[in-house]
Write a structure and sequence with these properties.
175 residues, Muramoyl-pentapeptide Carboxypeptidase, domain 2, 3-stranded antiparallel β-sheet, alpha+beta, 45% helix
């Protein structure tokens, strides 16, 4: 993982104007408390469903752009290894500690597990549903990779969340 982190850092570029770029995309580095505060504020204004739809839409747009960056990095690897790589990258960039908990190719089923989610202890285990809104980008990225593999379409769903008192966050994918 340390090597992956060093590779990620080496691809950050601070231009003369002081802006940060990752590869060719301008990036904004956010703190976890800032992002979580924004999510909570949106929930207060739009409700949990509205905040989810807004953040999910942005995260899925990110995934549709980012998948092109991942494809050359995972070319020729089995789908299971591609998922592990994506999870490592998501961990390295600070969006939780991710692991592939289950993988079955026939029928296709994937379960990924996250500890240390970006929303940390903001909800104190008392949320009325899953709160890993931003992770819908990771879900979309894995769905897109499956599509590029020529696999049957898969759909990822958050089934457990530490925000609602579960011991970890969990996403299940199946066709």
């Amino acid at each position: 993982m340390e090597e992956l982190y060093k590779d990620f850092i080496s691809q950050l570029n601070i231009k003369e104007d002081g802006l940060v770029y990752f590869k060719d995309d301008r990036s904004v580095l956010l703190s976890v408390p800032w992002f979580t505060a924004m999510q909570r504020e949106l929930e207060g204004i739009m409700g949990a469903d509205g905040a989810f739809v807004l953040i999910e839409s942005a995260a899925r747009r990110w995934a549709s752009r980012t998948v092109k960056d991942y494809v050359p990095l995972v070319k020729g690897k089995p789908f299971e290894e591609k998922i592990k790589f994506v999870l490592q990258m998501h961990s390295v960039t600070g969006w939780g500690n991710w692991e592939l908990a289950e993988f079955s190719s026939s029928p296709l089923q994937v379960v990924i597990k996250e500890t240390k989610p970006y929303h940390e202890d903001t909800y104190g285990g008392k949320a009325d549903g899953p709160r890993c809104y931003y992770q819908s980008g990771l879900v979309a990225l894995i769905e897109e990779l499956a599509k590029l593999e020529g696999l049957p379409p898969i759909k990822g769903t958050e089934t457990k969340c530490m925000a609602q008192g579960d011991p970890h966050c969990e996403f299940v994918f199946h066709s």
